[in-house]
TrEMBL record:
Signal sequence range: none
GO molecular function: oxidoreductase activity
InterPro entries in the record: NAD(P)-bd_dom_sf, SDR_fam
Keywords noted in UniProt: Oxidoreductase
PANTHER family attached to this UniProt entry: DEHYDROGENASE/REDUCTASE SDR FAMILY MEMBER 7B, DEHYDROGENASE_REDUCTASE SDR FAMILY MEMBER 7B
GO CC terms of this entry: membrane
Protein name stated in the entry: Short-chain dehydrogenase
């Protein structure tokens, strides 16, 4: 990473911020993009303290012209772009019929078109260089599993997974094999996401079980820049969850839906409607972590979740064994 030029969107908070600091700590020159100018300046100073360089460029990734300008300023400042990380993202909580269409549209513009704008802006740069890595931060939620009241967010992450698959195919057909496109699929991460998300459910969100820290995801980003792979699972039981979903999709989905509805959301009417940071910068709400102690207090939750997934897999395997056993000839 030393002297590599890395552009990180969503760099003011959560995974984007952790990624920027991790790259700077390895001597990278990091271009920081988000809507919160004051917070970006703070992150830039921290990048310099860690031994790298931080260059703040306030950017709304939903604005294609602004993203093109972000790429231009990165090249003007450093001469190239080695890695582009699309980590900007927003969320809305609520049933699909509770979420206003305008807010859903805004979410898709940030989460999906923001990454598309990033690819459009940086691919010409990487083609001139002859190489580069694009990393999109998606999610297991949408990429693999689903949960109620997060339909817009899951939809956007599923779209991002498909977009990356298609982009890889098109680059390969064009013979541009030295431009790599990588999709990160983290499990639940301890970021300010739920504090900043819009809420149209009428129900307060209780503490969701974090299973990874943003620093863990950032380390996965750094590893991926050195060894690009199409998809990267991040989290202590991510692979087990993927296997469980493949073998027992329906029972796992029912269990996830019940747990989300009964455990992670409060009673109806205990939360006022809010659009969160859909239209405004996070500013004072920006932070590295969400305060849910993903690195310290989740051992029991991790074990329970892993046990649930493993139990589902074993039950599905036993059912398959019973139904596929030897049959007597007719």
């Amino acid at each position: 990473m030393r002297d590599a030029v890395v552009v990180v969107t969503g760099a003011s908070s959560g995974i984007g911020r952790a990624t920027a600091l991790a790259c700077a700590g390895r001597g990278a020159r990091v271009v920081l993009a988000a809507r919160s100018e004051a917070v970006l300046d703070e992150v830039a100073r921290e990048c310099r303290r860690r031994g790298g360089e931080g260059f703040a460029v306030p950017t709304d990734v939903a604005d294609e012209r602004a993203v093109r300008e972000l790429a231009e300023r990165a090249v003007d400042r450093f001469g190239r772009v080695d890695v582009w990380v699309n980590a900007a993202g927003v969320g809305i909580l609520g049933r699909f019929d509770q979420v206003p269409s305008a807010e859903l549209r805004r979410l898709l513009e940030v989460n999906v078109l923001g990454a598309v704008h990033g690819a459009r802006a940086v691919l010409p740069v990487m083609r001139r260089q002859g190489r580069g890595v694009v990393i999109d931060v998606a999610s297991l939620l949408g990429g693999v599993v689903v949960a109620p009241y997060l339909g817009g967010y899951a939809m956007s992450k599923a779209a991002l997974v498909v977009f990356d698959d298609v982009l890889r195919q098109e680059l390969a057909l064009a013979g541009e094999r030295r431009i790599q496109v990588c999709t990160l699929l983290p499990a639940a991460v301890d970021t300010p996401f739920f504090r900043q998300a819009g809420n149209r459910s009428g129900r307060a969100v209780r503490s969701l079980p974090p299973v990874a820290t943003p620093e863990r995801v950032a380390r996965a980003v750094v590893r991926t820049t050195a060894r690009p792979r199409p998809r990267v699972l991040v989290g202590p039981y991510a692979r087990l969850l993927v296997t469980a979903h493949a073998l027992a999709r329906r029972p796992l989905g029912r269990a996830a839906a019940r747990r989300t509805d009964r455990t992670y959301f409060g009673p109806a009417g205990d939360a006022p409607p809010s659009s969160g940071i859909l239209y405004g910068a996070s500013d004072a709400g920006a932070a590295l972590r969400g305060g849910r102690h993903g690195g310290l207090r989740t051992t029991g939750r991790r074990t329970a979740a892993a046990g649930l997934a493993l139990g589902t897999v074993l039950a599905a395997s036993r059912r398959r064994a019973r139904t596929s056993g030897p049959r007597c000839p007719g």
